[in-house]
């Protein structure tokens, strides 16, 4: 049975000031298997973030439903960890306290919290910054902490909404490798939203291409490049072939989006 | 010569320079005051010179027990202000966090905020006499609605993405309020309290100008009868000094309580 089932999930936003309602997401079906790493690729404004927010329980679908391990999703919960594009560390908590936020909410004993935090700080290379406040950290370090914070909660599925979107190109590549290496170790189920084609291929075993608004899944492309992967595969022929195909797919949609905006 | 590098927009100054500049204006202020009065440009009846003022101040402390006046005024301000905090903080937080509560109280608080506390003094004397209760009530009325409204706005402006991050980490409704809304708003709430306390000082003096037999305001009123501008100015000066001290104390406490806060 699928880990996550999305059945006919659509989202229509009401019209602004008497205008017509906007369909952000056409009714969408998707089934995610345990340990899948799926990237959702689409032009901006295609409803991919809306889909992720509905899975997280932060937004309600106008139609359809989401099931995680057979249970309907109705509100946010610790079983669905999320990393946002914006920096969402709690500024009044240190790196370590941020990572322990969910654990404390669950009432995990202090000693155990320490061990879990130490483990994940080591994984994302922030052990030396345990007592730093977020404002003292670079963007990349903040997103690493946010990732550790989500992982420390041991969610059933990890939802990532363009988490590296605000980072520079080099930092972004390093973050992709870090996330991939963590996934190769822990085998979490991951849904990763992005508009970066390379990023979508590099980490995923399935790339979903979405159409311009209203969002709809246009293609479901398996990525069969074996793990462990490193940055060198980005120049391999298999990678280039996928990239060419996805570039074509996405280009059509971006042009459509631009036409709609004009 | 190039541009003076000290005058880059928003560029901070060294602590030492800052202190020197801050004291410098006080010195300049007193110098201008001294020149205007001692130089004979202003009649002593309207404005006492610095020497007379500080001499009057010395006498106030040594002969007239001014310290107890200061004590009673500080007690009134703090008493009324603490009462306003006890009522205003929880209500403001509840209004900021929960929109139905805001819808219920909001319009009334906005209305009540514009009622001038000083206009209540005659009524309050009727209700509570001229004792301490009346003084505390003036401060309370003057402060509580401001606190409620400003705290509600601060809590309501919490970044949605921080709240959403907490929710996806499994935070309960209670957890969102106590572990996100409150800590996030604390530095700004402290800053608001600092501002409102300043206003409370203006209310206490008004309350003491009318129907009081002690306090700094009462002393100023008494001095007017004897046309002792030295004492009057010294009284006003002391209020300023107390304000300055509370401001510094508030700031030091904020820096100590909220080391993570960058927005100051």
Description of the structure:
The complex is a heterodimer of chains A (262) and B (264). By secondary structure, chain A is of the alpha/beta class. Helix content of chain A is 37%, strand content 23%. Chain A has 2 domains: 4-79 and 157-261, Rossmann fold (3-Layer(aba) Sandwich), CATH 3.40.50.300; 87-154, no CATH class. Chain A has helices at residues 48-56, 95-99, 101-106, 110-123, 139-152, 169-186, 197-203, 237-261, and strands at residues 4-13, 22-32, 37-41, 63-68, 71-72, 80-83, 157-161, 189-194, 206-210, 217-222. Chain B is an all-alpha fold. Chain B has one domain: MetI-like (MetI-like fold, Orthogonal Bundle). In chain B, helix 3 runs parallel beside helix 6 and helix 7 (160-168) runs antiparallel to helix 8. The mean pLDDT of chain B is 91. The interface between A and B is medium-sized, with 29 and 23 residues.
Which keywords apply here?
heterodimer; A: 262 residues; alpha/beta; Rossmann fold; B: 264 residues; mainly alpha; MetI-like fold; 10 helices; flat
What global shape of chain B is seen?
Answer: flat
Please identify, by name, the CATH architecture of the largest domain in chain A: 3-Layer(aba) Sandwich
Secondary structure tally, helices of chain A: 8
The beta-strand count of chain A equals: 10
CATH architecture of chain B: Orthogonal Bundle
Computed over alpha carbons, the radius of gyration of chain A is 19 Å
Strand residue content of chain B: under 5%
Approximately how much beta-strand content do the residues of chain A carry? 15-25%
Low-confidence stretches of chain B: none
Count of structural domains of chain A: 2
Order of helices and strands of chain B: HHHHHHHHHH
Return the CATH class of the largest domain in chain A. Alpha Beta
Cα(first) to Cα(last) distance of chain A is 44 Å
CATH fold description of chain B: MetI-like fold
Domain count of chain B: the total is 1
Spatial order of the strands in the main sheet of chain A? 6-7-8-3-9-10
- Average pLDDT of chain A works out at 91
